[in-house]
């Protein structure tokens, strides 16, 4: 029954195993532009799902070009087919993750007429928390060391694969067999017991945990290596249609500002379009969410890309790439407006949790402590200054969902799915510490005498 459920979920999340073409019927005199996106990869929504739902691109096309356009939206499961279609000249603009972006650039540089350009970012996590390794709730495996001589499902060549390999190397774990599977197949393999763990990117880890089908084994945020998604365009198309590329980037800025200003409305829009639970989408795309949305290709992201190249070469999916030739933010600079250089050095999440914590009576100012509650009977969320304050609020009024940041990695997670530590030496409003994984909780208790693990129910009762 679990396998049937997860396959049904995959069908709801992914409308197709290939692509879906969506758009209004084209006027006979309208120019066509084809956009490849991944609706369920929700850290690309400002260049895909949200952008499409709000109609920002179509609006900016009319304003900036003064011509009629028919936008064809093609929805794919992964970045690989988008790259293949771009190389074939059938997709003009696409969005995908950091590893697929490198493969896109490398393949494009093999011939002058197929070259592509990385023109903007969509969403990122500066520590790498968008990737996670999960196992089943009943598994006896406590950490990555328990994967020795076992099989792990991942999408080979993806950032989630890179996270798995780097994490295993850091912890000296050997003998792990990697099974190359798309996320939905890997999820069913995990539930059937064919693999011991699943290493994947958003939104699969939280989706499975939210459904009670998995628990975190490794938080990608512990790796402390940025992961991100971005937008690529065909170089020749950009040269011939610079105004269209600028219209797309201006629309992406619109979508990003929309998300910053009302992250809950943006998350609901994405949930409606994808079939993903709103609670899962908002974990990633909400205020203080795992995903930081920004259009600029920050220096930390560029450095991370250079860091990723050797790994992709080592597994044989990348031959060579000229990163300096691939990255081109000139189109973005042309439409960004004032403050580009000043903003370039900023990596804080602008969709921040703000306000006043009504339970503890203090302002919410520290993103490393701030949590959020979505009341069961309300359409707006409520801020919490600290995880301990959040526990008090949850106990008083059981919410639809509550989110807290991991005390070590900062990764935003479900409060009821977190592991909790009580530290009697901490200030009263900060006495309870949440963690995504057991290894992080153990690391904290090992260095804080008197701190001990407690259940979520105990944390609620004692907070």
From TrEMBL:
What Pfam families would the database entry show?
Answer: NMT1 (PF09084)
- Per the UniProt entry, the signal peptide is 1-22
Q: Name the domain of life.
A: Bacteria
Would the keyword Amino-acid biosynthesis be found if you checked this record's keyword annotation?
A: no
- What is the protein's given name? Putative nitrate ABC transporter, periplasmic protein
InterPro entries according to UniProt? SsuA/THI5
Tell me which PROSITE patterns the record gives: PROKAR_LIPOPROTEIN
List keywords of the entry alphabetically.
Answer: Signal
- The SsuA/THI5-like domain is annotated at 125-265
């Amino acid at each position: 029954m679990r396998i049937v459920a997860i396959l049904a979920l995959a069908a709801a999340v992914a409308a197709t195993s290939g692509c879906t073409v969506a758009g209004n019927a084209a006027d006979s005199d309208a120019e066509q532009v084809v956009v490849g996106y991944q609706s369920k990869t929700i850290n690309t929504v400002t260049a895909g799902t949200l952008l499409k739902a709000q109609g920002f691109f179509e609006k900016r096309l009319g304003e900036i070009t003064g011509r009629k356009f028919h936008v064809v939206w093609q929805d794919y499961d992964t970045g690989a087919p988008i790259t293949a279609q771009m190389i074939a000249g059938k997709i003009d603009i696409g969005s995908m993750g950091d590893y697929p972006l490198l493969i896109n650039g490398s393949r494009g540089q093999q011939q002058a007429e197929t070259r592509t350009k990385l023109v903007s970012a969509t969403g990122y996590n500066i520590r790498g928390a968008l990737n996670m390794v999960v196992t089943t709730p009943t598994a006896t495996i406590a950490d990555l060391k328990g994967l020795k001589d076992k099989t792990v499902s991942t999408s080979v060549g993806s950032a989630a694969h890179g996270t798995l390999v780097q994490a295993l190397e850091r912890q000296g774990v050997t003998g792990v067999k990697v099974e190359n599977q798309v996320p939905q197949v890997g999820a069913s393999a995990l539930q059937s017991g064919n693999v011991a763990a699943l290493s994947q990117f958003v939104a699969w880890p939280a989706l499975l945990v939210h459904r009670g089908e998995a628990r975190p084994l490794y938080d990608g945020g512990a790796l402390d290596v940025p992961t991100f998604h971005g937008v690529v365009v065909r170089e020749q198309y950009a040269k011939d249609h610079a105004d269209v590329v600028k219209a797309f980037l201006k629309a992406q800025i619109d979508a990003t500002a929309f998300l910053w200003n009302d992250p809950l409305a943006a998350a609901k829009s994405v949930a409606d379009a994808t079939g993903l639970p709103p609670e899962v989408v908002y974990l990633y795309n909400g205020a203080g969410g795992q995903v930081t949305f920004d259009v600029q290709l920050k220096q930390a992201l560029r450095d991370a890309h250079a860091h990723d190249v050797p790994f992709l070469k080592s597994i044989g999916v990348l031959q060579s790439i000229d990163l300096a030739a691939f990255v081109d933010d000139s189109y973005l600079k042309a439409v960004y407006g004032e403050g580009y250089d000043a903003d370039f050095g900023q990596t804080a999440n602008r969709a921040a949790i703000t306000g006043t914590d009504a339970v503890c009576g203090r302002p919410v100012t520290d993103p490393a402590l701030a949590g959020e509650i979505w009341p069961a009977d309300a359409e707006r969320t409520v801020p919490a200054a600290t995880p301990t304050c959040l526990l008090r609020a949850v106990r008083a009024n059981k919410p639809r969902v509550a989110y807290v940041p991991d005390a070590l990695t900062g990764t935003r997670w479900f409060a009821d799915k977190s592991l909790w530590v009580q530290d009697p030496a901490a200030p009263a409003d900060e006495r309870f510490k949440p963690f995504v994984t057991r290894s992080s909780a153990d690391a904290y208790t090992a260095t804080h005498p008197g701190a001990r693990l407690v259940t979520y129910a105990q944390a609620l009762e004692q907070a």
